[in-house]
## 1
Amino acid sequence: MAKMTNRIKALFEKVPTAILATATVDGTPNAVPIGAKKIIDDETILISDQFFNKTLENLMANPKVAVTWWEGHEGYQIKGTAIVETTGKRFEDTARWMEERSAKAGFPLKSKGAVIIHVDGIYGVSPGPGAGKKLV
Amino acid sequence: MAKMTNRIKALFEKVPTAILATATVDGTPNAVPIGAKKIIDDETILISDQFFNKTLENLMANPKVAVTWWEGHEGYQIKGTAIVETTGKRFEDTARWMEERSAKAGFPLKSKGAVIIHVDGIYGVSPGPGAGKKLV
């Protein structure tokens, strides 16, 4: 159990892009930039899948993820556990959110799934001797 | 064997920050932003380690890495294999490069190691139906 602070959540919402890292079960990492992201609550973030390829393949076999974001010299990494929902209320809400959001941006996108990530731990990734230290 | 094109190399050199993703042997990913990076040749990149913590622990146990960078809607991901050198010519060159580079930036940093990454494959991470496709 790890709860994101208001500052950590605010930076996640503010940055245009975060990184979603997954891995094969035998430890080959994969890291992709993602923009369609939101905070659900202090322990949960949501990423909408439009174009996931290897990421989705990895998530099907191994739910462990890292999500990293930063701005200037402030940055955070969440270690978490993901589930992918392609039916139900959370998926339908995500699909509607993406439809509205992407229409507004003039670049229509369709969600294929809601990646719901439970936060297991939070680490600093700011440069300096504290890099990598567990924060929460 | 995968060779980076001039365009791929140029974007790597241009972006201020790339992502280095590693994983434990049992597949928990870790992703951190890195700035001290350079191209060695078409199949090799170098990252200087100043503050690696979990990244270094992972690299010691599992050499598989992903390195991702992007600008706007153009982005690339390398899958590669890393070795960490803490003695010898490449490490000494890296230490000198970091010393000069960080002194110039007014933020003195000391390299603890040279992470030399052999490029095994190159993938697109631009949004769109081609996301994740192998390029080289």
Note: The CA atoms of residues 89 and 95 of chain A lie 10 Å apart.
## 2
Amino acid sequence: MRKDGLGSINDLIHAKARLGIMSMVMTYEYCDFTMLKEKLRLTDGNLGAHIQKLEEAQYIITKKTFLGRKPKTYVSVTEEGREAYREYIATLEAVLYGEIFHEGEGDK
Amino acid sequence: MRKDGLGSINDLIHAKARLGIMSMVMTYEYCDFTMLKEKLRLTDGNLGAHIQKLEEAQYIITKKTFLGRKPKTYVSVTEEGREAYREYIATLEAVLYGEIFHEGEGDK
């Protein structure tokens, strides 16, 4: 875990809505847009903007398809996203339990 | 844990700088301003503003004193702050591990 304290918390994932999206795509193999919207209680615009940010970081990929004549967007996590999420959890837990503040104290 | 999904994540604590302050006052009985500033790598103004928000919420208390002729500000957690931090961790872990999304699925 990088030793720059709070700076090592991944802001891309830490923002609540994006944390919710990442947690869901780690929980469910495929999440469709409507399911994300309902579970996370976000608006279309808000959810779309957060999905775009995570896509640009290559943490998730989206697939657009049709169910009958109804358009469907599916979101799933990439290997990079899985790795970033695991590192985020490890860093967060080090902060939550204060471990991150003891680092480097020994080697002064 | 309140069942309003992401909404139950305490924004007051979730913001990175304030998360760092709360984690430190939970780790160390007394934190002085300089120690917080160094460990969290925040500016005086930034740290002061975040301390004020946590004080207004009665999660922390500050004590101003002098060490010789040098002014010193000490920050410590209140019982309310301790409780809020514990609830924040429980909620965050439910989100991190996706448990929060399975709630209420059974009782539809």
Note: Helices of chain B lie at 11-14, 16-27, 33-40, 44-56, 79-96, 99-102.
## 3
Amino acid sequence: MSEIIPHWLTKQASLSPNDTALELEDGSCLTFNDLMQKSQSFAKKLASQGVDKGTKVGLFSNNCTEMVIAIHALSYLGAVGVFFNIRLTEKELSFQIKDADVSSILAADGLANQINNMNFSLQILSFADVCKLKEVNVPLATEIALDDAFTIMYTSGTTGNPKGVVHTYGNHWWSATGSALNIGIHSNDKWLAVLPLFHIGGLSLLLKSVIYGMPIYLLEKFDEQKVHHAIMNCQVTIASVVTVMLHRLIDLLGEEDYPKSFRCMLLGGGPAPKGLLEKSKDKRVPVFQSYGMTETSSQIVTLSPKDALRKLGSAGKSLFPAQLKIIDANDEGIGEIVVKGPMVTKGYYKNKQATAKSIQEGWLSTGDLGKLDEEGFLYVVDRRKDLIISGGENIYPSEIESVLSSMVGVKEVGVTGLEDLKWGEVPIAFIVLDDASVTEVEVLQYASKNLAKYKVPKKINFEAELPRNASNKLLRNKLRELMQ
Amino acid sequence: MSEIIPHWLTKQASLSPNDTALELEDGSCLTFNDLMQKSQSFAKKLASQGVDKGTKVGLFSNNCTEMVIAIHALSYLGAVGVFFNIRLTEKELSFQIKDADVSSILAADGLANQINNMNFSLQILSFADVCKLKEVNVPLATEIALDDAFTIMYTSGTTGNPKGVVHTYGNHWWSATGSALNIGIHSNDKWLAVLPLFHIGGLSLLLKSVIYGMPIYLLEKFDEQKVHHAIMNCQVTIASVVTVMLHRLIDLLGEEDYPKSFRCMLLGGGPAPKGLLEKSKDKRVPVFQSYGMTETSSQIVTLSPKDALRKLGSAGKSLFPAQLKIIDANDEGIGEIVVKGPMVTKGYYKNKQATAKSIQEGWLSTGDLGKLDEEGFLYVVDRRKDLIISGGENIYPSEIESVLSSMVGVKEVGVTGLEDLKWGEVPIAFIVLDDASVTEVEVLQYASKNLAKYKVPKKINFEAELPRNASNKLLRNKLRELMQ
């Protein structure tokens, strides 16, 4: 039976009307009452365009206040938000619009032209357009049924077209409470949102905000100086980042003693190089590694505060309401990570086949490889699809990346496999340097000293930057294109 | 669809194996791993007696470690615990045993004789008896389906027989997380359990313990010196008490500065006299009033930390996942309190009629009267059944109790109505004195100065003690018996 709770924003506006919901870099704030008023008004305006329960509305926006308001407005109408990555090509967008039955798109004012130029045959409204509409007096949701769908986000499969991950309100609820049971809820918490809101890692923070009654410090995009400023001067207590952000931050953070109230740097977006974690430890930055994906409504495995230093390099244990297993493990104990829990999606939008393939009896096959230590802590090894098999040996790109990125002068590393007549596949590395004088020979010498011979990359490519997605995650499958 | 989570004790034992789950007054402790091991062993022994999924097992015990172990053991077997008040008469017990289809009873070692002497025709095992049994290798639950029933507790209706309130695992889960969203989760939290575990206020603490990974400091029963000691010297941060306990405590607490880490005295069990709350405020005891009942799996309305002083006397707002309304309000805004939320029972055991009468479309009629102030804070006025109607005027016993208990020399007060030919009903008061020299005339003078004439009790009865239930709640319906 679907559980019913009061509408979460209305409820928080009732409990904490004058508390800050949203804080922006210019210092301006929105209280929960402000946010409710604005979201309800936005909903009533949107209703004039026929947006209703179950309507699929596309969102094409960078991080901004209006995006936050639009998201909550959709919930007041019972509409489903389809979150587009703003870097998508016309072809990719076109597929998602059609696949998700999107009937209209809401776009950030600065991005409306970009999407209007694509000539999609559906209504596109900028946030400013919506504000000019007249409110229609429709009944707004006062309750939330946790089994109802709220958001759809597309995720690339290993093969075929992207799949629309459907998140129910319940998925988001359990994700938020599962995280709270891990890192606690403190009355002074303020979470830094620098990940894109169109990705699950960003969106999940907005929902934590209304569920916990906690302010979000919202940045339009990642900038290490701004993040540093937020932590040092704006009472941010928790920040969610991905590896490359931490990398860029770490040189700024910890040079002075940062505020004691900063208690958690939540690290997601793939395995982190051990060297980076050790550097963080030395600088006393409280990094907690986590593991999750769109299908798990953000983190589902997180290192807890008490284990953070003792289990450096581990992603931790599954959150309290979740379960985790390693299946089909090899001799080293490495196998596929499968997870289960109420924060796991019930399936892909209108794609029973993909759902049945990925989720069996509640267990989601993640496509990631990992192993558990004797105490049950998870070490994520790599994406299964990124595994390099060379002369019958398994080579995990992240291991090589981790080693090379600890070399002085090396800033970022990406490793992938290249077809090879003799070995089947061989590893090759793509490196961004801090210090332009570093040579291929030096890198190979360093690699030989720290890696078994078959793991030493057969070629080193120096690059100006590595391919990353809008969340700054490394796209290994695009590395090879750099060689063309 | 019923959500599935991992078995909560097994999960907490995996996350925090060596953290304290239970601390006793003699200083001995059980870790979560200990508690899991002992509960699983107890379950395997109990399985030898045919206890299985859905079996109703009675529990007849005071607060002790074995009771905690037995409760978790039942969950490993999927059995349902029927919690008996150990003060019940043979007749009352007999009714509950039959009504709840109880097939066997587990009794505290010190209480086994008492219940054995009652000659019920079912198996009675003391905890020591169970320990002597051989383990049977049955599969224990590894997961919990939140819609499954876990506990049954009987509650007296205004008329007719007691009704068995069924709590699902989900009811307990939502109660625990709802409370966490109100008062937060701190890593140093330790909750004092002094309420009986056979009442919902006590049991709910055990489940918070496994869900939060938080130690419980367990006392066999209330003793103000022991509670004072626990707060002053044993790092207790939160304590759940009822009014009479707070009354007895307040003179001890605050004479010295108590530890800063003590952050919440959660007060339940009926409206508190304003004088007591003010005394607590003066002594800087952080009292948060709350409101709840067996049907709501403990508190469903609680004053939040930020409003505690500003809204003295209010029970607060409904917890984040819950809703509250006042229906059929009179001119003063006083009407029946109705509540809704995932912590509210789905109904009474095998009693569709009572369920249908109490719960309509998810809304539970509480039988309590209350009103909301302009900001939506609840003030509980009284039990509807305790309302005295005198010459057409509504008189709330708790108001008179609150006034009289602020008189110097008065320790406890209970007020009820007496039939009266002229007025229909008139209020009468029962008083326990601190100072034996106080006279009826003095009390009536004090009452006349502070209450409208029709509210002044028509008779003052001095008593050695007032009738209270096992949770120390005043039993107003038994006051009249004192006059016989």
Note: The interface with chain A takes residues 1-6, 8, 11-12, 14-16, 143, 147, 170, 174, 177, 180-181, 184-187, 211-213, 304-306, 317-318, 320-323, 340-342, 362, 376 of chain B (CB under 8 Å).
## 4
Amino acid sequence: MKAFYGDLRLGILGGGQLGRMLIQQAINYNVTIKVLDPDREAPCRRLCNEFIVGSLSDYETVYNFGKKVDMLTIEIEKVNVDALEQLEKEGVVVYPQSRIIRLIQDKGLQKQFFKENEIPTAEFQIISSAQQLKESQFPFPYIQKLRRDGYDGKGVYKVLDESYLAGAFTEPSLVERMIDFEKEIAVIVARNENGEVKTFPLVEMEFNPQANLVEFLISPSTLPFEVQQEAESIAKKIAETLNIVGLLAVEMFLDKNGQILVNELAPRPHNSGHQSIEGNVVSQFEQHLRAIFNQPLGETACLSNAIMVNVLGEAGYEGPAVYQGIEKILKCAGVYVHLYGKALTKPFRKMGHVTIIDNDREKAIEKARYVQETLKVIA
Amino acid sequence: MKAFYGDLRLGILGGGQLGRMLIQQAINYNVTIKVLDPDREAPCRRLCNEFIVGSLSDYETVYNFGKKVDMLTIEIEKVNVDALEQLEKEGVVVYPQSRIIRLIQDKGLQKQFFKENEIPTAEFQIISSAQQLKESQFPFPYIQKLRRDGYDGKGVYKVLDESYLAGAFTEPSLVERMIDFEKEIAVIVARNENGEVKTFPLVEMEFNPQANLVEFLISPSTLPFEVQQEAESIAKKIAETLNIVGLLAVEMFLDKNGQILVNELAPRPHNSGHQSIEGNVVSQFEQHLRAIFNQPLGETACLSNAIMVNVLGEAGYEGPAVYQGIEKILKCAGVYVHLYGKALTKPFRKMGHVTIIDNDREKAIEKARYVQETLKVIA
């Protein structure tokens, strides 16, 4: 095996912000990095040894890219898995493994995996056609999710009663009981080739009930110790059952009865782990590198309270981004700005994030609200 | 003025590890960066928007490079200052200002500046020739330093008695009383255009008496509060007297009588501030960016004890670098590896650094010794 600091050529499928922050960390280890992304203006374009513009879903493109590296990883699941399988057969190391990406690409297979392995999750049914949906006796209200390619709220449809059926997806999907949840929570877990497994402490998402949007991510959680233990042990169980190598983000609901239900998996660094850059002993990006390079996993303990605020493009603005209020928020101690290198803003586009660190949790939340009110991405 | 996050083109003179870590931080602000360095394999080569190979001491090269950017900064002082002066006249912002770089390039002018401004420093005399050195009545033993181009111990000669005079430098130099110091200490201070000034807490260098080398940098200092206050106020006074915009590293001696004497200045990020990446609320690199972009300076308080160990090429090895022991040190919690992207090692070449964070100071020092014994750069 080539040494990870230099000789080894790491390919990243996807050149977005997750790849960008992964590279920022990989610089510390001299990792030689090639990136494939369809967008020639992708956030990683200037930060790697080679940036290749090409489709992530095209077999030939992914295969040819993979032949030029020793190890492949992803920062987005929507990639051509057939090419990855072939590359694995030909000796390219693919972490996370192609079979895991294939499983996670399909929300139907993901749910079946949960069921088979007794991972708690909302009741569901696999639906192959509009006809089958109508015939299903699944109790209203429920959520319909496309099996493939859903992303950031896309591919999700609420079926409150029979009258909603007309607008439902006709593609392969699954229907799922609507969870009246108390809280959205997440655990990031890592596993290396040696089988070492480590979780990051549980984080909570704070909802804005008016906008029905995740406003903040708060780390660490103040939920009861048993809930934290339970969530972390579910994440560990999934990582071990999958035998994943790399990072796995496990998004969960805590329902009103205090039961944890797994919502979705992402086999890569994830929005719910950004606060770890400043808030934990190692960041999720460092941990992903350690996992895929089969290095000892890092200590994940929280250093402080950390709140992560997504910086989204303001509604009504489209064009070259202007970051209004940045000077004001830099006046606050413990405020860390991460812009993603996207030249153009559009409504709700993820343009960056800000992490707020404070030993006083209430103060951290107060600062986070100030950041959210003050920093606006306009054009 | 263009916005620093994107429109503004920042040029960095020098593409070494200091530039590399500055870029790692600047990524968070989308800064458009061009780098000039004579070495086509310099650490920054893959991390900037444009990397230009060229001499830093050649007027035309520096001038032409500067004409393509809106703002220039440095990561090494040895640059053509005449070109910077001309660029300033033509409207390019140069931070730190060319007059400060000119002053600091010349150890004779530096010492005179200290004297004129009542900054405590070791007694000295400016020497222009071998003849003048012989005729000087400067009391033995003393140190002779070349006025220009000394670096990392080069350009320094000990004159213990008359018999040493034969080997002395004949170029313009200064002679300086040999300080019997208790400790080498340093303060990094930043000043922005608005005149805001902030110091980082005092750090100490731990000497290995056998090797006569700085082994560790320890942050924060545990010297008496008055010493810390005094050192920080000296650093502030220098930054304010110079009206510098940017970062200034102030290296000092604490002598056996408890007196602080300023040794040397560096108007840029500095080896004595690397621990700030993990050990302080903001890092020296973030602070330098905030200073030159006239943003509010960041909070500099220490988050924890931090020890910085330089990772030097092992004596006796030259060639493609191998980092022996890296897996072992990654097993320790709170150990942060920073490699500088140099393909080839040679004896004592700075190949990287490791920062160790621990709330228990003794434990941090123990871990630092372990890192130093364990991590070896061989070929």
Note: Chain A has a mean pLDDT of 95.
